[in-house]
Design a protein that fits this description.
The protein has helices at residues 14-24, 48-57, 86-94, 120-151, 155-172, 184-190, 216-228, 237-243, 248-257, 264-275, 300-307, 309-313, 323-329, 332-337; strands at 3-7, 40-44, 61-63, 66-71, 98-105, 201-207, 232-235, 278-284, 288-295, 315-321, 342-344, 355-360. It has 362 residues and is an alpha/beta fold. It has a domain at 297-360: Ubiquitin-like (UB roll). The longest helix has 32 residues, at 120-151. The radius of gyration is 23 Å and the shape is flat. Bound molecules: guanosine-5'-diphosphate. ATPase that binds to both the 70S ribosome and the 50S ribosomal subunit in a nucleotide-independent manner.
């Protein structure tokens, strides 16, 4: 399954945040198919649509989607040269599918900043530089390996080397490969070399409890995020670690006192899920209302395959009701009466929130 790697310089609140995520996370016992390692947090994706469906269907069970976060320690300046836990850090981050950069946006004289002062944009530069340097080394090796083939006239190799040279020039300026605006074909060509800076990335601004507004650090980070098209989630890790310890009643009271609608973790989890290119469709039966995870762009048979490979192999068609129609009509039967149930074939690209039934041959 796809995972978000959580990275950041030391002392930015990464562990505090990750601990909150694991405390909010699922119990391994409920998910026997997952082996949960200490640096992995598996969390349910908060989705109010599940409540709306449950009100209508009254199921015995509700099953949200889940998403994985991995705590990746050891990012320091020099990591790309093996400083600190450098090599382990790079190996761990290579295994993730998206990068969540935690950045310090709070002042606290009691918490040392590794670079001497709080400066989120400079911190991000440090991180990107390390990752770009690691990618440069990877790209150099690939150019050497494929260069000989390219010289001997191998068309594939020539195309790859030309692309690698373009990427190298970009990385040389300290820029991440993702900002090169590569098309799908180029991205596919680069896939085997596992670049770090091509992975989608987002920022978590760890702010003080009163730091959601009038916070220049946060403003700078948001400006950077806008420029890069990278999502920015602001939260206070210290508050999040308190919230996860509360029971539901106390939680609601605490959130309303803080003027928050929901825990910041919820926003982080949803943003991570989206960053991974994931989306949800639903099945809504009396036994179970369930959110299923698919990739944006998946077809109906691929979506069916998430439930069971037989569903994909024997796929005939899908009966589909858009979430809004399902709720507005008050359930499947009435949606069908109102002509809101569509019959979709193999080519259908599933939309986020579709409520689906699959017909298949066994
Ligand atoms: P890491 O090195 O990035 O994993 O950072 P930690 O989570 O260990 O936090 C480093 C220090 O910052 C600890 O003393 C935390 O208590 C403190 N810290 C973490 N989050 C916050 C926060 O939101 N506000 C304040 N004031 N301190 C925090």
């Amino acid at each position: 399954s796809l995972k978000c790697g959580i990275v950041g310089l030391p002392n930015v609140g990464k562990s505090t945040l990750f601990n909150a995520l694991t405390r909010a996370g699922i119990e391994a016992a409920n998910y026997p198919f997952c082996t949960i390692e200490p640096n992995v947090g598996i969390v349910e994706v908060p989705d109010p649509r599940l409540d709306a469906l449950s009100k209508i269907v009254n199921p015995q069970k509700v099953q949200p989607a889940i998403v994985e976060f991995v705590d990746i320690a050891g990012l320091v300046a020099g990591a790309s040269k093996g400083e600190g836990l450098g090599n382990q850090f790079l190996a761990n981050i290579r295994e993730t599918d998206a990068i969540v950069n935690v950045v310090r946006c709070f002042d606290d004289d009691n918490v040392v900043h590794v670079a001497g002062k709080v400066d989120p944009v400079a911190d991000i530069e440090t991180i990107v530089t390390e990752l770009a340097l690691a990618d440069l080394a990877t790209v150099e090796k690939a150019i050497q390996r494929d260069g000989k083939k390219a010289k001997s006239g191998d068309k594939e190799a020539m195309r790859l080397v030309a692309l690698l040279e373009k990427v190298r020039a970009h990385l040389d300026q300290g820029l991440p490969a993702r900002s090169l605006g590569l098309d799908e074909d180029d991205v596919a060509l680069l896939k085997p070399i596992c670049l770090l800076t091509i992975k989608p990335a987002m920022y978590v601004a760890n702010v003080a409890d009163d730091g959601f507004e009038n916070n220049p650090y946060l403003d700078h980070l948001k400006a950077l995020g806008d420029k890069e098209g990278a999502p920015v989630v602001a939260l206070c890790a210290a508050i999040e670690s308190e919230i996860v310890e509360l029971d539901d009643a106390d939680k609601a009271e605490f959130l309303s006192e803080m003027g928050l609608e929901e825990p910041g973790l919820n926003r982080l989890i949803r943003a991570g899920y989206k960053l991974l290119g994931l989306q949800t469709y639903f099945t809504a039966g009396v036994k179970e209302v369930r959110a299923w995870t698919i990739h944006v762009g998946d077809t109906a048979p691929q979506a069916a395959g998430v439930i069971h490979t037989d569903f994909e192999r024997g796929f005939i068609r899908a009966q589909t009701i858009a979430f809004d129609d399902f709720v507005a009509c008050g359930g499947e039967a009435k949606a069908k009466e109102a002509g809101k149930m569509r019959s979709e074939g193999k080519e259908y690209v599933v939309k986020d929130g579709d409520v689906m039934n699959f017909l298949f041959n066994v």
